[in-house]
Amino acid sequence: MSRQTFSRRALLAATGAAAASSLLPRRAFPASKAKIRIGLLLPYSGTYAALGNNITDAMKLAAREHDNKLGGREIDWVAVDDESDPAKAPANVNKLVVGEKVDVLTGPVHSGVAMAMMQIVRQEKTLTIVTNAGAQAVTGQLCAPNVFRTSFSNWQTSYPCADVVLKDGRKKAVLMFWNYSFGQESMAAFKEGFTKGGGTIVKEIPVPFPTTEFQANLSEIAALKPDAVFVFFAGAGAAKFVKDYADAGLRDKVPLYGSGFLTEGVLRAQGAAAEGIKTTLHYADSLDTPVNQKFREAFKKATSRDADVYAVAGYDTVHLLASALAKVQGDTGAQKELIAALESARTDSPRGPFRFSKAHNPVQNVYVRQVKGGKEVVLGIAQKDADDPAFGCQMAT
Ligand code: PHB
Predict the structure, then answer these.
(1) 234 C-alpha vs ligand 1 centroid, how far in Å?
(2) For residue 331, how far is its CA from the centre of ligand 1 (angstroms)?
(3) What is the value of pTM for the model shown?
(4) Which of 83, 111, 130 to mutate to test the pocket of ligand 1 (most atoms within 8 A of CB)?
(5) What Cα–Cα distance (Å) separates residue 386 from each residue in 86, 133, 153, 207?
(6) What is the mean pLDDT of the chain?
(7) Which of the listed CATH numbers 3.90.1210.10, 3.40.50.2300, 3.40.50.12160, 3.10.20.340 matches domain 155-281?
């Protein structure tokens, strides 16, 4: 039971009059004036550190747009470096949920960390907003009323790319990926679409996370001579992979495809090596909308860095929370109403239209992007209002 719920019940009991409950100004409890504690379970070290930093800074930017208050309460940020390490996740989640008693838990980036987190937050009923990790189960088999996701599901970012490759006339593909849940699911989603459309997977090359020793595998790809290579790498590892791919002489021979994480936030580091890469993602820097332009300028001004898809999820998370918390006047103890408010919340996202599905995953456009002249150019929409199949989620049926 949250502290807010408890104090309300205690007060009701003290009045000794159940009938008085409707008269009590619930939202005026002193507890609801206390700072709202927002937990951040994110990587601040390792290959995904830049992702964690962009999510965090965009959340704080959005909070400033609400005068640093959510539902009338000032904010206490409580951050833990999860190191993208699933083995440390139970301890890190407990630190935030049980130790720090956060009112809302946000994060993580890594799907393995998210899977461990789900076990705890489902039990503790902590209101949780997943700000990156795309593991299917979060809004599939393990979906829960208290868990929302503002980023994407694996399926949304990988399945639509199969059609892009096939439309380019490429029918024989090699898959290469970091071998943990996200990489595996990403490949499965791509494979489903690719084989359905008549394509063949020539070889699957898993590499351990977060290894960046790609040389031997790149030689193997050169020998296999496929029509296309579809990969999952992100963050610092993606920057290295794309450069190694070009250095191995493959860039002009076998086109590279992936979910958009391959180039997000690392385009500048990849330089000319990234030219021509086509990806699918629910965001692109160049989306030409006033909301996106305003967001990118504000993020740049605040951090001196460029915004990316990770920043977008952080930014939207706080705006959605702000609108839902306003509806319950900051009373996080009113979880049922808060969940209902989040379910119907809308935000003008830099990514375009956004709403939550029944399984609490975003329904959003997925764009086809291509790197041209060092910029991520939007070629079109791969899937409009893409929903996730939410396999196994009881709430979605
Ligand atoms: C994930 O583990 O879910 C993940 C990590 C980094 C990304 C995308 C997904 O860029």
Answers:
(1) 7
(2) 32
(3) 0.92
(4) 111
(5) 29, 17, 10, 29
(6) 93
(7) 3.40.50.2300
